[in-house]
Amino acid sequence: VQLVESGGGWVQFGGSLRLSCAASGFTFRNYPMNWHRQAPGKERELVATISYNGMYSNYADSVKGRFTVSRSNDENTLYLEMNSLKPEDTAVYYCNTKLPTDSGPRDYWGQGTQVTVSS
Question: Cα(23)–Cα(41) distance, rounded to whole angstroms?
């Protein structure tokens, strides 16, 4: 299983970024996917979740109306469109999924991509 995030970078207040997460090693279209983020000195938090078929999504209150999660099951790729970015969105962003294993469900994580928003 491999999850590889990309698209992070530096952006000014009010700007936009689009993150991508390329998935491999499992049947991507069968599983919900998540975006999390972790700011310096803070716990990792769930930002957005999308169902296996992309029909349903949920967002943290802090990003509702500004972030949009989507997926391409044909391309095995998860996306996070981030608009109206604020300095408090600065964090390392991770994609994640939970897959069944012989020893029970297991979380898989990418390496993360840094997003920095300047004021």
Answer: 28
